[in-house]
Amino acid sequence: MPEGFPAGLVLIDKPAGISSFSAISRLRSVYGKKLGHAGTLDPFATGLLLVLTGRATRLASYLVGADKTYDATIQFGSRSTTEDPEGEIEASGVTTTEEAVRDALPELTGEIDQVPPAASAIHIDGERAYRRFRRGETVTVPTRRVLVHSFTLIHFDSDSQQATVSVRCGSGTYVRSLARDLGDLVGTGAYLTQLRRTEVGAFSVTDAMPPDTIAAAAAGACAWFPASTAVGGLQQRQLTAEERIIVGHGGRIAVDSNWVDDVALLDDMGDLIAIAAVDDGVAAPKIVLVPA
Predict the structure, then answer these.
(1) Which of 62, 121, 208, 260 has CB 3.0 to 4.6 Å from 13, enough for a Cys bridge?
(2) pTM of the model
(3) What is the per-residue pLDDT across 261-277, written as a single tens digit (0 to 9) for each?
(4) Does the pLDDT value for residue 5 go beyond 80?
(5) Known catalytic membership, residue 84
(6) CATH for 8-65+202-227 (3.30.870.10, 3.30.2350.10, 3.40.50.720, 3.40.50.200)
(7) Full DSSP string of 100-133
(8) Of the given ranges (12-26, 28-42, 199-213), which has the lowest mean pLDDT?
(9) Catalytic residue among 13, 42, 71, 181
(10) CATH number of the structural domain 68-198
């Protein structure tokens, strides 16, 4: 990464067929090795990856819990061992109707208990579940509580038994498992054939670019955003020149006594200098992106 290049956020539109880490690694020639991310996608999936550059890697915790939106295609009448097209597929020989699918969706909306896929990155006894699954072990993944804001049927094709859906959900929700459970509810079995992430928090895939396109451009010239956008949901406080120096050295400053939680501290150009924890009208820096 060029010397002094500011911390920021790059929006990748990941293609199908490669891992998220492969997509991210293609940016290293432009942004160096110090890259972070706010959640990965399965190799068959496409869409939005948020990649943090430079000191902004320390802001990942403010993004990983963001809500996400997906477009997906579900195949009814078959089951997959991985709940996606990469597993072993077994046909059930049973069909369903658009009405049955629509009627089942409310049961998978709101706060629900979900069993993540056996072929997932969840740790089981200190090891990724998918590693055990690939060795042929029987993997029991604990149920977790997840939040599905909306699960909407966009189109159903009765001939192909495929449905296109849109899902808005909280962090930790597996859309693969939603497809599996929907198939079980209508009695046919089902799995995902396509998955595309279109939004993460306030960020949209419409502002993203393929990794190779980003890697071919100059740093900051393609699908890059300043670090302040990563914490756009926090309270913000503009620093005076004197406060800028104090914060740069890790010192505390006074803020609104009514504020709680964290605050983003910005300079007069709107650049993010630090994130501070607020307590009783005092902001104490916890992450300093631009030292004095």
Answers:
(1) 208
(2) 0.91
(3) 899 999 999 999 999 99
(4) no
(5) no
(6) 3.30.2350.10
(7) HHHHHGGGGSEEEEE---SSSS-EETTEEHHHHH
(8) 28-42
(9) 42
(10) 3.30.2350.10
